[in-house]
Specification:
- The protein is globular and about 65 Å long.
- The protein is an alpha/beta fold.
- The strands form two sheets. The chain has an eight-stranded mixed beta sheet with strand order 3-2-1-4-5-6-7-8, with helices on both faces. A seven-stranded mixed beta sheet has the order 12-11-10-9-15-14-13, with no helix packed on it.
- 34% of the residues lie in helices and 20% in strands.
- Helix 5 packs across helix 10.
- 42% of the residues are buried.
- Strand 5, helix 7 and strand 6 form a beta-alpha-beta unit.
- The chain has eleven helices and 15 strands.
Length: 408
């Protein structure tokens, strides 16, 4: 009983529903990743289990469906040890989805002997940090398109074992003797630093980030056992005293759904409670350096589906029974514009939705014009985001000639 209290079994008690939300659970085919998928699906989310093994992934989907009764669970291939797989997965998601509400990284590599990926990177650091860094950035446009999205990374309190050993300028250990314990701990510190840096860079958006130790700080030291006998003893003790996989998932689910922490982006949680971090894990210079090193390694991190801006000429504003029809053409001011770039664009601004004869259904978001209400349409942006403002005929009556179209 004392040990059970020590390990603090906590449950996510949030009643939040996720109906209509899309969640991606990376490495969610086994363990607390699979149980996280159960928790999200049970709340009504559509869940994509992203993992490298199709057989395991599809089996996990069936498990989640059986546990929750949900039919909104699917498998998608993702191998975090290969940057090409990460980019392929991101393209697949960007092509078929208009927004992403929850992105969770629940798996990762434990300690292992020094191994390199096909990308030439140390395996533990790539799987635990570089691949999540790349995928998050590639999907950032979809995360921003959600009214309130969350990104959750699993980490471990073993990061606190680091001090002077931290060296993100030699992540491949080419100049330093490899220490698998330090390599693992450094990858977990990277999860924390990335969480905090991403929180800072997305502070003015709808994206919120959290990192979680899902196991238990009291027994994180078991990760460092190399002796087989010791590992067997610890494994037996774990079944007696430590959390089940379902219990391990609770803090992850908590960070995905708990309403009271929506303004606590960048924080570290364990047992459904915020935990203080060591001072070196709060080092802004260190987190910025990690970001720069990571970007140099993975290459282009431009979000897929990021907005491209195009200016058009408003030809006519027509009031309809449903709202306003804006008839527009591309701005033909540049002599280099091709005929294909001067196509007509008819955009309906209605009280219910925005429809367009362009490629996709879009929604309207008012621009930042500092002039009178009557000229707000002069810098109007049309995106796939939620309708924030409805234009009345009086608002567009004195509009000038520029309309900005944003295609996501």
């Amino acid at each position: 009983a004392i040990l059970r209290e020590w390990t603090k079994r906590r449950w996510c008690l949030s009643p939040a529903r996720l109906d209509g939300k899309l969640a991606i659970v990376a490495e969610g085919s086994i363990g607390h990743g699979r149980e996280t998928a159960v928790g999200l699906a049970a709340r009504g989310a559509r869940v994509i289990l992203a993992c490298k093994d199709r057989e395991e992934g599809e089996a996990a989907c069936r498990y989640v469906e059986q546990k929750t009764g949900s039919s909104l669970v699917e498998f998608s291939e993702l191998d975090l040890s290969k940057f090409a797989s990460v980019r392929k997965f991101a393209r697949h998601i960007a092509e078929k989805e208009t927004k992403l509400d929850i992105l969770v990284f629940t798996g990762g590599m434990e300690m292992t002997d020094k191994t390199f990926t096909e990308d030439g990177q140390e395996l533990v650091f790539q799987v635990n940090h570089l691949a999540p860094f790349l995928l998050t950035n590639l999907l950032l446009g979809l995360l921003k398109a959600s009214d309130a999205s969350r990104v959750v990374y699993t980490t471990s309190e073993v990061y606190s074992w680091l001090r002077s050993e931290t060296n993100f300028n030699d992540v491949n250990w080419s100049e330093t003797p490899y220490d698998k314990k330090i390599a693992f701990a450094q990858s977990k510190l990277a999860n924390i630093l990335f969480t905090k840096e991403l929180a800072a860079r997305t502070a003015e958006t709808s994206v919120r980030t959290f990192c979680v130790d899902p196991v238990s700080g009291a027994f994180n030291w078991m990760t460092y056992f190399d002796n087989k006998v010791a590992k067997t003893i610890v494994s037996f003790a774990k079944h007696l005293f430590l959390k089940s996989e379902e219990e391990e998932a609770q803090s992850i689910i908590y960070c995905c759904v708990e309403e009271t922490i929506k303004d606590q982006s960048g924080r570290f949680y364990m047992n459904c409670e915020e935990r203080a971090l060591e001072d070196f894990a709060l080092d802004k210079a260190l987190s910025e350096n990690l970001w720069n090193v990571s970007e140099d390694i993975v290459g282009d991190i431009t979000g897929l589906g990021e907005a491209s801006i195009e200016t058009v000429k408003i030809v006519e504003l027509v009031e309809t029974s449903d709202g306003i029809m804006v008839k527009a053409k591309n701005d033909a001011g540049s002599s280099s514009d091709s005929e294909d770039e001067k196509n007509d664009h008819n955009i309906s601004l209605t009280k219910e939705n925005i429809e367009t004869t362009m490629r996709n259904r879009m929604t309207y978001e008012e621009g930042n014009s500092e002039s009178t209400v009557g000229s707000n349409l002069q810098t109007t942006t049309v995106t796939r985001r939620v309708v924030k403002t409805i234009i009345s005929s009086s608002q567009v009556s004195s509009a000038e000639n520029n309309l900005t179209i944003t295609e996501m």
